[in-house]
Design the sequence.
């Protein structure tokens, strides 16, 4: 069994999450040979005949696209590992402006930069948008998470290496959360940093935009557990993925409206910074953007015309 | 133009190339460290609700997410006009220690050590941590063990081992209970024993260190708490290449010292001092700036380090040893902190409401060097301007020049052997560069070594 890990536009966190199997990695490498992983070893190109390729990161430039094509050709099974690979991840936020504006900002306009600094030219160009791996290549398995959590990789990876499949929970973050709904009589929207939430009650019920109900689980509701609202880093929940008429924004609004009785229209008006608050991990995904009711298209248009 | 490329240069975080231009005789004309990735966080954070920054910026880098998380939260403390309570501060420190232990252990044992313990002449397939498992399974297990300790600390304090989430304006969202604290204490104790034993390996490497390898003479920059090592307290000290004190800064004063420039051939910006002098950051810089580490084993190790390299060190490969000393310090400091009841206090956080200051600057020493997060926000707490200064940009010039120096030595008659390639990579690896951090990258490309030879010239 030959496995490879390829890095596209991401942060290497997904590769570290594989190293985070810790001592279990020793038994994994007895059953499978890691033949290519640039972060940890010196093999320069993915060889032919890979059994399972794990691809982490999104596709943002021409080079990412080429690498993805190469590794797809050379491997029997391809796994999109992590939220960037599955839904574009944080890199998708770069679509909020065009690349010339990004360059000007980074090299010239920041306070330590200078107006005369040259913009990089002899470097690979950006594609016109961010893509998730599955937008471009055939994906055999998706493992979401930013990055995927140790507990699940401990089950998934040995099974994959043996050629088995495993049944895992497909529920939302809320299903893994131990909080109970409190009173919502005086519900009002709060920014995620405001005040100190109580530890017993649902954060959404307390007024915070916790994305638990619209987010795929398998993190043990790590953030709500630590008194932080869920920011959606595992990507969309299964019902949102499956149902064309469900989207992160509208399901959040619907849920708050059901909970509080506040009309949807007035809730919609209250929402702030929808791009970074609701879509930070999915804005780069074609599937999510293509939903009739998605707000992603408008956010991108607004951003890049500024 | 012929382009011979060796692709990718490996065992570093992120993606880049080395370009070597040859003259007609096959000798090195010039060489550059070229980074081919950019993500543009500074741009796409504009318009963001500022409280999202501590959650978004860790995604700059999966190896040192904590540094971004904490620097960002520190900037937010200022924006909301609060100081975290003592327990909140202690937990942030513990979170950072978890990161130092993991990141430094990763680099020393898993990324750099194969060069020394397995050697340049070994085949590509062997010269890595998996090869280390074969040649020295005991050491590989210990490396796994200590890195695990680091990640467990991060998970317990930060909520997750990668991309922690609990640092908020005003402190930390979660308190550490006694059961977790004791479990961590025991783990750190075990890791400290490994780290102390491991000094023997580091010392051996130190004795063998080629102090002329990829040398460059620069100034240095880094935090120092009145002469004692610290990654969060005190002010940033700036010294010149001849060790003269240039000054020190906090907050927005960094603008009086640092400027950035760019080159058309790289996405990675270069930092230098205003006025043009180059400087370096990271373990080598930090150790050059302090009198003592402040913990017993690390101080002993520092003495030996200074006996070998001197009080003021320019040698590039000394980075690896300096990094080990910091790793040892981090284990010792974590054990001290976990023995202090302050970490299990209940008051982790002070509530914040509206923006008090329109600008906040968080400065911290990330494992790879000084990290600055600078946000300007609207009254409603929406980011209007953002500047991120990361370690690898500050070391970019030194890496670039080191690469050229080694290339001149190892390229002969237009060819580059595999061990020569690895030597060039070692000059880069010494800095433990993090290219995702450095370019807050958008699209990445593996570090590739590329030889450009002008065919036209050859034919003549
Ligand atoms: S999914 Fe998250 S952890 Fe993985 S590469 Fe993307 S940003 Fe990094
Ligand atoms: S919305 Fe958040 S806090 Fe509420 S149950 Fe779901 S995950 Fe838990
Ligand atoms: S709770 Fe939400 S933001 Fe936190 S790890 Fe889980 S999916 Fe990600």
Sequence:
């Amino acid at each position: 069994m030959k496995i490879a890990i390829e890095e596209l536009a991401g942060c290497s966190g997904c590769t570290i999450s594989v190293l985070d199997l810790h001592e279990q990695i020793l038994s994994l490498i007895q059953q499978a040979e890691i033949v290519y992983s640039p972060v940890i070893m010196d093999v320069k190109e993915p060889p032919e005949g890979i059994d399972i390729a794990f691809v982490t990161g999104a596709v943002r430039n021409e080079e990412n696209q080429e690498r993805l094509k190469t590794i797809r050709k050379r491997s029997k099974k391809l796994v999109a590992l992590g939220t960037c690979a599955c839904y574009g991840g944080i890199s998708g936020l770069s679509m909020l402006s065009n690349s010339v504006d990004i360059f000007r900002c980074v090299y010239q306009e920041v306070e330590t930069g200078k107006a005369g600094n040259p913009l990089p030219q002899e470097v690979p160009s950006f594609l016109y948008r961010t893509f998730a791996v599955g937008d471009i290549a055939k994906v055999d398995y998706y493992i979401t998470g930013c990055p995927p959590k140790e507990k699940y990789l401990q089950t998934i990876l040995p099974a994959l290496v043996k050629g088995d499949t495993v049944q895992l929970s497909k529920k939302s973050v809320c299903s893994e959360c131990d909080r109970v709904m409190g009173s919502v009589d005086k519900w009002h929207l709060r920014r995620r940093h405001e005040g100190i939430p109580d530890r017993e009650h649902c954060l959404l019920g307390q007024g915070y935009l916790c994305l638990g109900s619209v987010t795929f689980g398998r993190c043990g509701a790590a953030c709500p557990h630590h008194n932080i609202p869920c920011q959606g880093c595992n990507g969309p929940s299964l019902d949102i993925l499956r149902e064309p008429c469900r989207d992160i924004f509208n399901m959040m609004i619907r849920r708050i409206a059901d909970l509080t009785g506040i009309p949807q229209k007035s809730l919609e008006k209250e929402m702030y910074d929808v791009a970074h608050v609701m879509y930070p991990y999915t804005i780069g995904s074609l599937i999510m953007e293509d939903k009739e009711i998605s707000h992603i298209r408008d956010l991108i248009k607004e951003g890049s015309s500024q | 133009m012929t382009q011979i490329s060796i692709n990718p240069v490996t065992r570093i975080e992120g993606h880049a190339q080395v370009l070597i231009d040859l003259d007609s005789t096959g000798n090195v004309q010039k060489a550059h460290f070229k980074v081919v990735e950019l993500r543009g966080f500074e741009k796409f954070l504009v318009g963001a609700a500022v409280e999202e920054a501590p959650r978004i910026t860790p995604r700059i880098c999966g190896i040192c997410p904590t540094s971004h998380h904490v620097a960002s939260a520190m900037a937010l403390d200022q924006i909301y006009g609060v100081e975290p309570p003592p327990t909140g501060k202690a937990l942030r420190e513990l979170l950072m220690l978890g990161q130092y232990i993991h990141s430094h252990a990763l680099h020393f044992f898993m990324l750099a050590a194969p060069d020394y313990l397995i050697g340049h002449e070994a085949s590509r397939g062997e010269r890595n941590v998996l090869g280390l498992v074969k040649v020295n399974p005991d050491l590989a297990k210990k490396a796994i063990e200590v890195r695990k300790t680091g990640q467990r600390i991060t998970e317990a304090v930060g909520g997750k081992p990668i991309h922690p989430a609990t640092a908020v304006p005003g402190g930390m969202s979660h308190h550490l209970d006694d059961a977790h604290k004791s479990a961590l204490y025991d783990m750190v104790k075990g890791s400290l024993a490994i780290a102390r034993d491991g000094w023997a390996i580091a010392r051996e490497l130190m004795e063998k260190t080629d102090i002329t390898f990829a040398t460059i003479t620069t100034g240095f920059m880094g935090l120092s708490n009145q002469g004692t090592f610290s990654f969060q307290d005190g002010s940033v000290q700036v010294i010149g290449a001849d060790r003269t004190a240039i000054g020190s800064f906090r907050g927005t004063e960094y603008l009086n010292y640092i400027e950035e420039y760019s080159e058309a051939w790289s996405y990675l910006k270069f930092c230098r001092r205003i006025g043009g002098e180059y400087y370096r950051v990271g373990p080598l810089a930090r150790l050059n700036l302090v009198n003592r580490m402040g913990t017993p084993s690390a101080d002993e190790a520092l003495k030996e380090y200074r006996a070998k390299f001197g009080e003021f060190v320019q040698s590039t490969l000394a980075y690896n040893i300096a990094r080990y000393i910091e790793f040892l310090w981090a284990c010792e400091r974590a054990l001290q902190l976990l023995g202090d009841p302050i970490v299990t206090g209940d008051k982790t956080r002070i509530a914040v409401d509206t923006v008090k200051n329109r600008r906040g600057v968080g400065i911290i020493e990330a494992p790879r060097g000084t990290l600055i997060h600078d946000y300007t926000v609207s009254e409603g707490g929406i980011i209007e301007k953002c500047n991120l200064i990361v370690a690898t940009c500050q070391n970019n010039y030194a890496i670039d020049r080191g690469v050229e120096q080694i290339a001149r030595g190892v390229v002969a008659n237009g060819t580059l052997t595999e061990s020569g390639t690895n030597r060039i990579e070692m000059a880069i690896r010494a800095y433990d560069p993090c290219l995702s951090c450095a370019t807050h990258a958008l699209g990445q490309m593996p570090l590739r070594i590329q030889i450009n030879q002008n065919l036209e010239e050859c034919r003549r």
